[in-house]
Write a structure and sequence with these properties.
- This protein has one domain.
- With about 130 residues, the protein is an all-alpha fold.
- It is built from six helices and no strands.
- Helices cover about 80% and strands about 0% of the residues.
Amino acid sequence: MEKISQFVARLFLGQIFLLSGIFKIGGYEGTQGYMEAMGVPGMLLPLVIVIEVGGGLAIIAGWQTKLVSIALAAFTVVAAVIFHNNFSDQMQMIMFMKNIAIAGGLILLAVHGAGGYSLDGRRSKS
């Protein structure tokens, strides 16, 4: 049961990044415009997509989990500060706190590792 719950936890954490990156591809121009409106250069969007899609897949697969979790936690906190800093707007406050909660889950994953049913777990056995 422990291995399954560890996999499900990674799936839940990784899917938000994977889907977010995929949706950014589909809405490329709109996302680029939003980034620029928030003071972030739109030319960084391909990097953001690679971080989200690649990081999400790595978390789900349990590959380089500690390193990827730390990187995604930092990415998520930075995104919260840049894009969800209007605390007078309740929705933005909720989005900020969502990002902070996700970062917390990623930090736990970085500390405890990928667990069962992961590429990291297979590598440590061999």
